[in-house]
Amino acid sequence: MARILLCTSASAALYKACDLASQLAQAGHDVPVLLTPSAAQLVSPQQFEAVTGQPARVHELGEDRLGAMDHIDFARGLAAVVVAPCTAALAGRIAMGLATDLVTTTLMAVPLGVPRLVCPAMNPHMLAQPAVARNLAQMVEDGWERMEPEVGHMACGEDGPGRLADPDLIAQRLLEILGA
Ligand SMILES: Cc1cc2nc3c(=O)[nH]c(=O)nc-3n(C[C@H](O)[C@H](O)[C@H](O)COP(=O)(O)O)c2cc1C
Fold this sequence. Notes:
Elements: E1 4-8, H1 14-26, E2 33-35, H2 39-42, H3 45-52, E3 56-57, H4 70-73, E4 80-86, H5 88-96, H6 102-109, E5 116-120, H7 124-128, H8 130-141, E6 144-146, E7 150-153, E8 159-163, H9 167-179
Parallel strand pairs: 1-2, 1-4, 2-3, 4-5, 5-6
Antiparallel strand pairs: 7-8
């Protein structure tokens, strides 16, 4: 059994991350989940907790969190990290090292050497923006493996590259990484 941190962000493909979390949990792994505050407006953290039996968190600060340091706790003992789906906004924060929420603060605290997989999902025009391409390329340069988004019909009504990679393929790739 391995501990795989799943970080999510506010994409139309977020619901697919529930399937990914479920698959990894059913394969016997610990799958703590972190959501950006925007992601938590699209899908409840409780949905992730229901399929993983693990904590799913959004905020680190608050009166009920006195003494807690979730960004350190979630970053410890990991066999792998996956960001799925990764929005344009989150890719920008990660590429720049901006630790502005629990997802990004935790990612900054993950020890170097832990395998990390990023699965972008966004509108084709967003994906084609030089700034977004630059941020994703920076992540790859910093050691992230990039899972290519699929080409197809998007929730926004457009067609092109930008659909989140199939959760089956993401899970398969993570299990390969763990086996390597
Ligand atoms: C319904 C909905 C779907 C969205 N889907 C995407 C998406 O697939 N990719 C993306 O980069 N942004 C998408 N956005 C915009 C992001 O939610 C927005 O940039 C947000 O600030 C991202 O915050 P986060 O990265 O902290 O989760 C979507 C917004 C809404 C309301």
